[in-house]
Amino acid sequence: MSEVGKFTQLANQWWDKQGPFATLHEINPLRLNWIEENVVRYMGTGLTGKTVLDVGCGGGILTESMARRGSDATGVDLGIENLQAATVHAEQGGLTDRLRYKHIAIEQLAAEQPESYDVVTCMEMLEHVPDPSQIVQACFDLLKPGGVCVLSTINRNPKSYLFAIIGAEYVLGLLDRGTHDYAKFITPAELDKMAITAGFNRQDLIGLHYNPITKRYWLAQNVDVNYMMAVVKPTE
User: Fold this and answer.
1) pLDDT above 80 for 155
2) Cβ–Cβ under 8 Å, residues 174 and 225
3) Average pLDDT over residues 136-154
4) In 3D, which of 16, 144, 122, 23 has the Cα closest to residue 66?
5) Mean per-residue pLDDT for 81-89?
6) For 223, which DSSP code?
7) In whole angstroms, what is the distance from residue 9 CA to residue 78 CA?
8) Cα(154)–Cα(184) distance, rounded to whole angstroms?
9) Which of 133, 135, 164 shows the shortest CA–CA distance to 226?
10) Which residues contact 148 (CB under 8 A, 6 or more apart)?
11) Contact, 51 vs 79, CB < 8 A?
12) Contact 149, 230 (CB under 8 A)
């Protein structure tokens, strides 16, 4: 809950594109497009018409953008203030017919609604929880057979410590100090093992990169720091 508190304290600033969550707004188009590319690749069509679950949705930046792509989207989070900020913004945008938020632990939701979603996303959350493998397992349980799950987190190595903590939190001020705990970072091999143990087939892996001089974000094969992984639930 202390990790949840880091973000709920800033709940009223989620939708300020120049505020503490500016980085999430800037990388959101890259993440959204990569998610949809994988949905198309493994399910044949894009987000339109899909039931989507965004785990650890925060203020709903990604959740709302997936709803705007035509999905029926649900966001879950343990931060009540985050969900309030997300709900207000969805109401202002006229999206409540295909977008809703729930205050519930993902493990509980998986027990109550197994195999209910076509797509599950869990972005920038696994490095903030006590047992990320439980979250990955819950994501698997919530997906329909053939469904796509996209996970994102931060690699654990000297470069990621330098970029994600020293650079992002202390030098550039992209994130508040104390946002991340290096010991909780997860290597791609570790995440891959969690996914396979849960029952997934891994399909794709991509790195997210940032140039502080040009202020440009892009995706590339190098996964030394921030990365996303797409996995698929087998149909049998």
Assistant:
1) yes
2) no
3) 97
4) 122
5) 90
6) -
7) 13
8) 9
9) 164
10) 38, 39, 42, 43, 118, 119, 120, 230, 231, 232, 233
11) no
12) yes
